[in-house]
TrEMBL record:
Coiled-coil annotated residue ranges, if any: 249-283
Keywords: Coiled coil
Protein name: Transposase
Organism of origin: Thiothrix nivea (strain ATCC 35100 / DSM 5205 / JP2)
Superkingdom assignment: Bacteria
Amino acid sequence: MRFLDVKTDFAFKKVFGSEQSKHILISFLNALLDYQGGDTITDLTIIDPYQAPKILGMKDTYVDVKAVCANGNTVIIEMQVLNVEGFEKRVLYNAAKAYSAQLGKGEKYHLLNPVIALTLTDFVMFPDQPEVFSHYRLLEKQTLAQYSGDLELVFIELPKFTKELPELATISDKWVYFVKNAGSLDYVPDTLQADPCIVDAFGIANQAGLTEEELEAQERRFDFLRVQRAFQDQLKDAVEQRLLTEEKLLKKELEYRQILEKQREAEKKQEAAEARAAEAEHIKAVNIARNLLDILDDATIAQKTGLTVEEVSALR
């Protein structure tokens, strides 16, 4: 038995956004969003995740799954495999668009309902944070008082989740494990069979139930991801190599500057020593010349001492 890699958008939408996925998505969202002890989701409607702009010139966007809960709250779920430039802004953009798109022309702002953007990444998005889950809301900068809970961003970084099957203690752990590892499993582990929704999710992800077109679409997606990851790895290697080369050049330049500085210091010391020696010789010559002033003429004294005739004449 083989299962789809749920980290691809095709498989993620099939497992969590298809017609038979409603109860699966409810279990999934309750497990991952019930961190604050709030009301659980009892019902929802899965809708087309395509977010078409209402204003001419605005950007079209896609999310993997979009659902409206029974209480009116909107949840948009996205599975992102590649760490593309500007991704963090896209998450915020999609959430803001989903929030603003609720109102029609002339409708009142109090009709707006909260939007939660749940994003799962197959890469580390926040390297300075060890937590698998991250939650963001609008808060006052100094007191951290909440301005509004209407817009919330929730991130799950799969590479940070390192628990193995015996360590799965909560339903949240099990769902994250399912998303991260389903594609590498060939059976449903006993630990995960205790939850019927996860078992159903494995049933949808079972490749045996896919049509030839669906298998082909999944393989095309894998090929695309392999090419993109290879390109990103090459680009990363090139950047690292360039940085390494620049670091070596900077190190060589620093060493060269240090050598030059030492040479300059040595030259200054040599010049100072030579100046002191020349001054001592000059003083010695002047003293000798003074002793010869009443014996020899200026030209002879200058010849004997190395002084100029003018210097000898000045001593008189």
